[in-house]
């Protein structure tokens, strides 16, 4: 059915203009982004197919490649770019709405929230370092490496160099597990111990190592899996 044949309350753009975006479903919001469909399917049906290809999950959709999106009939390069841009704006909004730089970090949960916009929905591992001053205020954060689905490599010398350049007193290491399981493996434990020992020699403190999953996290400091800064 063509979009024009639908009632005004069933056409996403008109529905949004009349009632606001909050009332729209995920597929309806996607249809607004896609704007048009194909000869056989309207924009709403194409949007539903795209969301279905992402397992019905916006998190999965945010990590879909352009190639995967364009495999859905009716989704070309320009439409895939529109969806990807909307997802990136959402990430940036989340980061902006959590003013971590204006508050002292007192728990692993606060670190998880600060890192959430950076690591949510990724399909490969990334390693990030958070730099803090002596008062536990974040003075910076950066991605230091990116790997495949199951592993990433940390460069201890580079991390220490950047920490000293920023005049950080403490650092937090974090990386994500795309599998969704935040529990550390043997390599995670060894990397934590190695970085902790290196920090000690430079007068720095490795405050924690947060392993990030979209719906949970693991904190070495909270769980005391390994001795951090003995």
Short description:
With 230 residues, the chain is an alpha+beta fold. It has helices at 12-19, 26-34, 43-53, 58-62, 66-70, 77-96, 108-119, 156-165, 186-201, 220-223; strands at residues 126-132, 138-146, 170-176, 205-213, 216-219.
CA gyration radius, whole angstroms? 21 Å
Number of helices: 10
- What is the tally of beta strands? 5
Number of domains: 2
Q: Helical amount among residues, as a percent range?
A: 40-55%
CATH superfamily heading of the largest domain: Cytidine Deaminase, domain 2
- Percent of sequence in beta strands: 15-25%
What does the average pLDDT come to? Answer: 87
**Any guess at the CATH architecture of the largest domain?**
3-Layer(aba) Sandwich
Largest β-sheet summary: 5 strands, mixed
Compressed to H and E, one letter per element, the order equals HHHHHHHEEHEHEEH
Low-confidence stretches: 226-230
Please write the CATH class name of the largest domain: Alpha Beta
Structural class: alpha+beta
* Overall form: elongated
Query: How is the CATH topology of the largest domain named?
Result: Cytidine Deaminase, domain 2
